[in-house]
Amino acid sequence: MDSSLLDCEQHIEDAMAEHATAQCPPLLAQALNYAVFPGGARVRPQLCKAVALANNSSDVGLASAAATAVELLHCASLVHDDLPCFDDATQRRGKPSVHAKFGERIAVLTGDALIVAAFQTLAAHAVHAVRIERVPLVTTIVARGVGAPHGICAGQAWECEQRVDLARYHRAKTGALFVAATCAGAASAGVDPGPWVNLGASIGEAYQIADDIKDAVSDPETLGKPVGIDVKLDRPSAVRELGLEGAVSRLKDCLESGLDSMPSCAGQNMLYKLVRAQSSRFIPEKLGQVAA
Amino acid sequence: MDSSLLDCEQHIEDAMAEHATAQCPPLLAQALNYAVFPGGARVRPQLCKAVALANNSSDVGLASAAATAVELLHCASLVHDDLPCFDDATQRRGKPSVHAKFGERIAVLTGDALIVAAFQTLAAHAVHAVRIERVPLVTTIVARGVGAPHGICAGQAWECEQRVDLARYHRAKTGALFVAATCAGAASAGVDPGPWVNLGASIGEAYQIADDIKDAVSDPETLGKPVGIDVKLDRPSAVRELGLEGAVSRLKDCLESGLDSMPSCAGQNMLYKLVRAQSSRFIPEKLGQVAA
């Protein structure tokens, strides 16, 4: 398959152009674009669109809207996660974090406006959707990935509790949006999303473990943000729980179990390759030997 | 009309029960309920539902979902507005604000999760909507009322700019959600929302002026939150711009112009009474003579 079909950048740009307009308060408009562009690897929206295409979606526009929504929600979560009251991170993607550059107030509002923009993008597509009857389920899936009780907000909130189950915390904080990506992709193709939960959950778990590993062993220049945050904030982490080798080993197990669980579909090979390619970036190069 | 038809409390409770569950991190679950119950006057959701009923809506469930979404978004905006980086308000509705009681992190997450819950409520209704084709427009209207460039987020963001046009600031910060309430009510009844913009905008403007008046002349016990914030934070305010009598006079003009603009519909008299009853609470009693 032509990999450009998975590219979501134009859809994300089109969506943002509706919000960061000349009528928008200038600082908020700047911060909205700053939080979304240039993006990271856009792993989640590509995964969402790939699952839809692998299932021969008859409403690719819906898959693109869902993919865009998932990415905007991811960006929103990063902006709020970096706030002084959470990670107090002054760097993100190799540049000052949104609150470091625009102040805390604009950072809170940027996250809020991106959450709204995500759902507005889905609603805007629905106005002329080929398959409008699929939109409610797709929207519900995306919302579950970010809200309470099981989405990103819940994941962050587990950081505020005295007792935390590590798996549950990771599932909510990172897994839920990957689950939303695979399941929204399936639902936008009119396919039962249930069997796609495990693939998303497994990639999400692997990704979170990779994040813990990077926090433990990377340098700030490579990572583009501060390192050592988990220990500094006494936060649960796979590396702190399992050690470095244990964490790398669990990461690999996660990915394999996710790929094994993938439902049979027309584009199974394409999806298999995409997930492998995406996850090859999960582990820092200098750990290649440990991971091999 | 039976005024209990306008009651949205059960719908709001049902919606919140989906999020503040036993699986939710306990502090977040408590804070979500704390932010929404007991509510204020529920002016916006009642207005939304009243406009739908006045237009003989054939999908009252959609109007109730829209009304609930509008109220949850209002609650979210209060939680974030009270944060230390904005108003730094420790009291709200006569009790400690969410961040004062649960901490800043839970307050940020509560606002985020309420925004998500608002759109999830609309999507959940859409799954079995009588008129699914109306949901995208209703959702878009609600989203416009809170996001960028013209909704609440934009309104708050104008507070961060050096130069602010007072009317534009009020329109976004307060008017936009009232416009969303009237227009979403109309759209959920299948009626063109355009002619309903002015009613919402006028009530919103009146409400914001009333807020400025209360901030200038109330005592904290009556208001249930700190007073004198506008002067303290050097914020634009109708009282600072027009003086007390000028502000009261503009408030009354706003309401009259809004009521004059109301499109003709089956329930026009009921709506007229509702808006009059709601707005009678706008002006503090001790200003009755000034306002008469």
From TrEMBL, chains A, B:
Q: Which Pfam families does the annotation name? A: polyprenyl_synt (PF00348)
What does this protein need as cofactor?
Mg(2+)
Q: List the PROSITE patterns hit by this protein, alphabetically.
A: POLYPRENYL_SYNTHASE_1 (PS00723), POLYPRENYL_SYNTHASE_2 (PS00444)
Determine if Cytoplasm is one of this entry's keywords: no
* Alphabetical list of CDD domains matching this protein: Trans_IPPS_HT
Which family, according to the similarity comment? Answer: Belongs to the FPP/GGPP synthase family.
Source superkingdom: Bacteria
Q: Which UniProt keywords apply?
A: Isoprene biosynthesis, Magnesium, Metal-binding, Transferase
Q: Which InterPro entries match?
A: Isoprenoid_synthase_dom_sf (IPR008949), Polyprenyl_synt (IPR000092), Polyprenyl_synt_CS (IPR033749)
What name has this protein been given in UniProt? Answer: Polyprenyl synthetase family protein
